[in-house]
Design goal:
Elements: H1 4-18, E1 21-28, H2 41-45, E2 49-50, E3 52-56, E4 59-66, E5 72-78, E6 84-89, E7 111-120, E8 123-130, E9 137-142, H3 166-173, H4 180-185, H5 195-205, H6 225-244, E10 285-290, E11 293-298
Antiparallel strand pairs: 1-2, 1-7, 3-4, 4-5, 5-9, 6-8, 7-8, 10-11
Helix pairs in contact: 1-6, 3-6, 5-6
Length: 303
């Protein structure tokens, strides 16, 4: 499943052709994705101006303004396991393959939602949502109801936001005996982190994925030096991945068709049996399974 950097990469790719533009026509080629599409979905989107495209955790959040009754709404979109957006301009190729391009689904049978956007200087475009496995989702949610919506009400702070601090992490981890990696994957503790980037952050921070999460909190409830290091490292890893365009493993691709480069600089993820890249470490990357997911870490330097 695409993680936070991949979703942010998609957001940045879509923003120039969607923000500030009117949806001239919307087409839903099936009534559902993971869940049923909103009632009269295409009709309700047609004619509205997409004012801003944001991200919350792994969700894309499109501010589509007021509906016919004057209620401000947000188009919430999730890529699921295999969802992707394709930009098809009136002229020119739909994608610009990069050096690490991998084939991505373009079968019309999997093009489930199409948004015809008002043209800019370069002419009009169609934004096509393709999803072979149909685990993605699109919902229309009143803006003033977002905070209480089941998808968002329990989400923790954004790891790149001002609210994600060592003190906030300490409060969330206090008293927890669950393994540290499992705690970081809990979206109630921090939103948007996934398996890949938790593995990378723990390796760079020198922290074992198996250590009890509560060990990052002092008896007085304050963050330890390790907790402070971890918060800084999480930010660094995510920022590097976003700058590189996301990791793009298997199904994910940027909206222009190019793949991210960050997967070529993994220090732990998917490197089982290879030498640890931490400075001065002579260990080897090992793999274990936690909660059904592969964890990659160095036994020697992650404590």
């Amino acid at each position: 499943m695409p993680e936070l950097p991949e979703v942010e990469t998609v957001r940045r790719g879509l923003a120039p052709v969607m923000e500030g533009r009117r949806i001239l026509a919307a087409l839903a080629r099936r009534p559902d994705l993971r869940w049923p599409l909103p009632e009269r979905f295409a009709e309700r989107l047609t004619g509205r101006t997409l004012r801003r495209l944001d991200r919350r955790a792994k969700y894309l959040m499109a501010d589509v303004g007021p509906d016919a009754s004057g209620v401000d709404e947000v188009l919430v979109m999730h890529l699921g396991m295999s969802g992707s957006f394709r930009i098809e301009p009136d002229s020119g190729p739909p994608e610009i393959p990069g050096d690490f391009h991998m084939p991505h689904s373009r079968l019309a049978a999997h093009d489930h939602v199409v948004l015809r956007m008002e043209g800019g200087a370069g002419g009009g475009v169609e934004v096509v949502y393709n999803d072979p496995r149909r685990f993605g989702a699109m919902l229309l949610v009143p803006r003033d109801g977002l905070a209480a919506h089941p998808l968002f009400r329990d989400l923790g702070p954004e790891p790149l936001g001002a609210d994600f601090t060592p003190e906030a992490l300490a409060r969330a981890l206090a008293g927890r005996r669950t393994p540290l990696k499992a705690a970081l994957l809990d979206q109630k503790i921090v939103a948007g982190l996934g398996n890949i980037y938790v593995c990378e952050a723990l390796h760079r921070a020198g922290l074992s994925p198996e250590r009890p999460a509560g060990t990052l909190v002092t008896a007085a409830g304050r963050p330890t030096a390790a907790a402070r290091r971890l918060v800084e490292t999480i930010r660094l890893v995510l920022e590097e991945a976003i700058a590189a365009g996301g990791s793009t493993l298997r199904d994910h691709a940027q909206v222009d068709g190019t793949l991210g480069y960050f997967q070529h600089t993994f220090r732990a993820y998917d490197r089982e049996g290879e030498p640890c890249l931490a400075p001065g470490c002579r260990g080897t990357i090992a793999r274990l399974v936690q909660s059904g997911r592969s964890t990659f870490y160095c036994i020697a330097c992650q404590r």
